[in-house]
Design a protein that fits this description.
The chain has one helix at residues 288-302, and strands at residues 11-20, 25-27, 32-38, 43-50, 56-61, 70-77, 80-83, 91-93, 99-101, 103-105, 112-123, 128-139, 143-145, 155-158, 164-168, 178-180, 184-187, 194-205, 209-214, 218-225, 231-233, 238-245, 248-258, 262-267. By secondary structure, it is mainly beta. It has two domains: 5-101, Carboxypeptidase-like, regulatory domain (Immunoglobulin-like, Sandwich), CATH 2.60.40.1120; 112-302, Immunoglobulin-like, CATH 2.60.40. The strands form six sheets. Strands 15-18-12-11-20-23-22 form a seven-stranded mixed beta sheet. A hairpin with a 4-residue loop joins strand 11 (112-123) and strand 12.
Amino acid sequence: MAQHESAMPAREVRGRVLNGSATTAAPLANAWVFLHRVGRERAGKVDSARTDARGGYRFLYRTGADTTALHFVSASRGGVTYINPPLTEARVVGADAELVVYDTTSRAFPLTIRGRHLIVEAVDSTGRRGVVEVYDISNDSAITRVSAGGTAAVFEIGLLDGARDARVEEGDFRGDAVRLDGTRASVLAPISPGVHQFAVRYTVPGDTAFSALLDRATDVLEVLIEDVNGRVQGAGLTAVAPVVLDGRSFTRALAQDVAAPAVLRLRAPTTGALVPASKLRWLAVLTVVGAALLVLLATNAMRGARRTT
């Protein structure tokens, strides 16, 4: 028999809300903090509180009979909501319960591309190639950049020539937060300080040779081509060991500190049997080494803003 929620042991989350700046993260007093629950039975806000003079807040709650339900805490500033990771422990306190919020601006300022990953798949049974582009976007300021009027792009990319059937892949921006117009993909959602991933999938004609424009400088550039004879030139790319993902072989090339503009020339000349049209999970493409590098870059970028008073 399921245990009644009132009989469940109480859990606690206790932390602070901090207002981030270029040098410190100062306590934010009198700010609303919300406790959320997402589960099979119900989802929504379950409690709220205002922070004290030191930015402190505290919630006691019970998980209920649904053991799969997730709880998390949120706070807002300037119309942007910030959340902490799901509360997996019975007691979450201190730094693990901190929420850092930021002032906002619609003024355009540069966003750093920490990584761009271009994955070109083999020709499928429709005669087209799948393309996945993954961007690691870093806001190195202490201000959240928002869309001017809700319609201007906060970040955008151009798709390869002949792009069709574009859709957003799993990442930090989805649904109404992204506008796809056939030739460009535009992020309309706020981009807060830190590193965020944006991924888009589309198809292009199954040509054996084509080019891609690198119109933004990037710290790390990675190109994968699903073809044993695949080659890419330009932007200082160097061929490295191929990788196998879900039983599919990709040639791979890497470059660092790539300046823009640059043109990448790709060749995928294999004329063997067509592969079935399928969806390769782009997350698998990010190697352990690449992921570790991006974590290091993000940590360095945010070190100053995370100091507290």
